[in-house]
Amino acid sequence: MKGKFKVVSIIVAFTLSMLLAACGGNTEKANDSANNTDSKDNDGIELGQKDLTVPYVAWARELPVSYLYAAVLEDVGYNVELKQVEAGPMWSSVADGSADFFTGASLPVIHSEYEKKYGKDVVKVKMNDEQTINALSVPSYMEDVNSIEDLQNNKELGDSVDWKITGIDPGAGLMSNTEIAMDEYNLKDDWVLSSSSESAMLAELKTKYDKKEPIVVTLWTPHWAFGVWDLKMLDDPEGVYGDGDQIYTVARKGFEKDAPAAYKILEQYTEDPDLIAEELMAPIFNEDQDPEEVVRQFMDNHPDLIAEWTEGVK
């Protein structure tokens, strides 16, 4: 009997050792698998500094695009604070490092003065839009007004609009260029450039347009207004507004090192002006929808774009 128990004990011990070895092997494989998964998840560019500050001016393109950047960056792990400012503080805050980047540098014309002042302290990351047009604009039903020259000594038109050109923010580069245009075309003796805000200018444009009344405004493309109303840009034979601007994303110096994944997304971002105007600008400004909701809907509609912009990011 003792011999049988001894044999049985040996068999049981052997069986247990095999089971333990198998379990140990499986555990090791599981650990290896987990390590491999962690390693794979860790591939990609590091976030670095996670808290980002993004100034923007509430213009037709800059507001929705800034919200879009913020949503994309937050989805990969950043905390983004959007700050609505005017053009001057937008540039200066990035130049002095108190903000990280902005999306709407209009160069070489509209923001030329800001670039002269702050250009050495910032980095142009990416050109987002190859050409925009800045000029004076009127409704197309103003058939006799097709050039800025048509404003000269035009008493009938001047009286009908109180000799006023309806502008936007006083610190906007477009306003500075319009002041130059008024000098160049000898308008300052009669005409006045009225500053307000883009939203106020558009509200006045809508009121006049609905009544088919004359109005002269400062405007640019791309802009959702051209998809809503029949407008035309006035010819600029003296070339005061230039051949058009390009729109750049501008970052503070050192941003690429401090937040490499964010910088990579800025570099990989691409922009279709018509798509931005139709799916972001129009719902926000013309339909008064919430910018965050509009941006999220845009991202849901274009997952391929989001994947392209965030490729390689951890």
From TrEMBL:
Localization per record: Cell membrane
- Domain of life here? Bacteria
- UniProt entry tagged with the keyword Acetylation: no
- Biological process per Gene Ontology, one example term: choline transport
Keywords (A to Z) from UniProt? Cell membrane, Membrane, Signal, Transport
Sequence ranges assigned to domain ABC-type glycine betaine transport system substrate-binding in this UniProt record: 50-300
Q: Name one GO cellular component term.
A: ATP-binding cassette (ABC) transporter complex
Q: What is its main location?
A: membrane
One GO MF term attached to the UniProt entry: amine transmembrane transporter activity
> What is this protein's name?
Glycine/betaine ABC transporter substrate-binding protein
Record organism: Lederbergia galactosidilytica
The uppermost taxa in this organism's lineage are: Bacteria, Bacillati, Bacillota, Bacilli, Bacillales
